[in-house]
């Protein structure tokens, strides 16, 4: 699957850098600019700063003179629009449309218009679909890089997403550490008057079961010992 993101006449260097960053976090790196405002936009300081580490995407990106050049080799082209056109490709949400093409389109291009004017009708008409991000009717103005991030995310989702590794469970403290901590607590509980050693009932076995279920880590055992020490110190000061 080949994916290309095409920015038509981008006018802000920062948006180009932010676009590179948006693509990289979603695993894409094919960025093409059509007639950018700045000839050196890919190497400008603001672009690199906003790319925030996605310099490799900028280094691979290229600027071309026409949309025809940008779309060479692409077999499925999606426009991005704020409003549906009366004529042209059907307008749908990214999620709805991309789910239908992820398994059959081999080379997909996403087109984004200029920051000031959006996409021209003639550019929209040559696309297979027009994607409209569902936004608030009261305020639907999306920054260019934000729109790219949303579409890149939806496309990655349609392609199956990235596998999220399961969380790594912290290692539990061993039985000896738990037993030592419980002895420390037993001493502290006696000193503060909570535990009567003459009539302990089943307090300590119950605490043993509680910590067995909790499976505290070595760091947590250290904290619990610190609490026990503080209780003992307070009891000693109170008796002084």
Written overview of the protein:
This is tRNA (cytidine/uridine-2'-O-)-methyltransferase TrmJ. Its EC number is 2.1.1.200. It is an enzyme of class 2 (transferase). Residues 4-153 form the tRNA/rRNA methyltransferase SpoU type domain. With 240 residues, the chain is an alpha/beta fold. It has two domains: 2-158, SPOUT methyltransferase, trefoil knot domain (Alpha/beta knot, 3-Layer(aba) Sandwich); 175-239, Orthogonal Bundle (Helicase, Ruva Protein, domain 3), CATH 1.10.8. The protein is built from ten helices and seven strands. It has helices at residues 13-25, 45-51, 55-60, 67-70, 94-101, 121-125, 144-158, 175-191, 203-214, 218-239; strands spanning 2-8, 31-34, 62-64, 76-80, 91-92, 107-112, 129-131. The chain has a seven-stranded parallel beta sheet. It is elongated. The protein starts with a strand and ends with a helix. The mean pLDDT is 92.
Compact summary:
It comes from Ramlibacter alkalitolerans. This protein has 240 residues and is of the alpha/beta class. 45% of the residues lie in helices and 12% in strands.
Q: Helix amount, in percent? A: 40-55%
Low-pLDDT residue intervals, each spanning 5 or more residues: none
Task: Give the C-level CATH assignment of the largest domain.
Answer: Alpha Beta
Our count of domains comes out at 2
Q: Name the shape in a single word.
A: elongated
Overall structural class, as computed from helix and strand content, comes to: alpha/beta
Strand arrangement in the largest pleated sheet: 3-2-1-6-4-7-5
Distance between the termini: 77 Å
| SSE pattern | EHEHHEHEEHEHEHHHH
Strand content: 5-15%
Family: Belongs to the class IV-like SAM-binding methyltransferase superfamily. RNA methyltransferase TrmH family.
GO molecular function, one term: methyltransferase activity
Subcellular location: Cytoplasm
Keywords: Cytoplasm, Methyltransferase, S-adenosyl-L-methionine, Transferase, tRNA processing
């Amino acid at each position: 699957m080949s994916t290309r993101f095409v920015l038509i006449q981008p006018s802000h260097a920062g948006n180009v850098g932010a676009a590179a960053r948006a693509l990289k976090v979603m695993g894409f790196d094919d960025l093409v600019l059509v007639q950018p405002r700045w000839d050196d936009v890919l190497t400008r300081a603001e672009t690199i700063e906003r790319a925030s580490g996605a310099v490799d995407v900028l280094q691979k990106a290229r600027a071309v003179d026409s949309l025809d050049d940008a779309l060479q080799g692409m077999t499925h082209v999606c426009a991005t629009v704020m409003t549906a056109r009366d004529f042209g490709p059907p307008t749908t949400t990214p999620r709805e449309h991309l789910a239908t093409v992820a398994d059959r389109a081999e080379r997909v291009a996403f087109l984004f218009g200029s920051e000031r004017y959006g996409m021209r009708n003639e550019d929209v008409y040559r696309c297979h679909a027009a994607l409209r991000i569902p936004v608030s009717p009261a305020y639907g103005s999306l920054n260019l890089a934000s729109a790219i991030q949303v579409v890149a995310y939806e496309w990655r989702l349609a392609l199956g997403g990235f596998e999220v590794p399961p969380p790594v469970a912290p290692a539990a403290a061993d039985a000896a550490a738990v037993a030592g901590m419980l002895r420390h607590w037993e001493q502290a509980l006696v000193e503060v008057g909570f535990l009567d050693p003459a009539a302990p009932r089943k307090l300590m076995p119950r605490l043993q079961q509680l910590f067995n279920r909790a499976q505290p880590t070595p760091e947590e055992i250290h904290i619990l010992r610190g609490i026990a020490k503080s209780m003992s110190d307070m009891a000693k000061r109170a008796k002084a």
